[in-house]
Amino acid sequence: MKYALILLLLPAMAAAADIDAASGLIKNPGWEQVRAHCGGCHSHALVTRQRADRKTWLDIIRWMQETQNLWQFQTQVETQILDYLATNYPPQPNRRRAPIPPSLMPKIAAPVQ
Ligand code: HEC
Question: Residues of 45-83 as b/e, b for ≥16 C-beta within 10 angstroms?
Answer without folding.
Answer: eebbeeebeeeebbeebeeeeeeeebeebeeeeeebbbb
